[in-house]
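Deliverable D2.4 — example input (structure tokens):
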């Protein structure tokens, strides 16, 4: 299993590894503060080596893009990541709400809109 994402996933690979049996190999690509384009590029080489025996978890793809008013770019890169990883199993977890920001900021609304659109688009892929 490979988990890729930005700072909210720090330590998640280790925690998930504890929950799985020893047959599972676990790898985490954490790219703090990065947009999905950087995350996608960082993981590209490793992903090319994966087969259907692997699961790639994209966790929070686009959250930094959303905060920077680049949700369209985050969506594009998340979908490209999914399409390019068609030789393996991919799980996409919604972009997380920014708990470091005031809850009623427009970023919260953008995260909800992004997650809704992502869900609709992934169903079509």
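Example output (designed residues):
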């Amino acid at each position: 299993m490979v988990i890729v994402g930005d700072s909210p996933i720090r330590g998640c690979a280790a925690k998930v590894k504890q929950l799985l049996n020893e047959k599972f190999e676990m790898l985490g690509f954490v790219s703090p503060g990065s947009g999905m384009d950087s995350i996608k590029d960082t993981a590209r080489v490793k992903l090319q080596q994966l087969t259907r025996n692997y699961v790639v978890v994209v966790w929070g793809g686009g959250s930094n893009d959303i905060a920077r008013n680049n949700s369209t770019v985050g969506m594009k890169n998340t979908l490209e990541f999914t399409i390019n990883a068609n030789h393996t199993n991919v799980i996409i977890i919604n972009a997380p709400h920014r708990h470091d920001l005031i809850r009623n900021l427009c970023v919260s609304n953008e995260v909800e809109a992004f997650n809704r659109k992502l869900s609709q688009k992934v169903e079509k892929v």
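The chain is about 45% helix and 15% strand.
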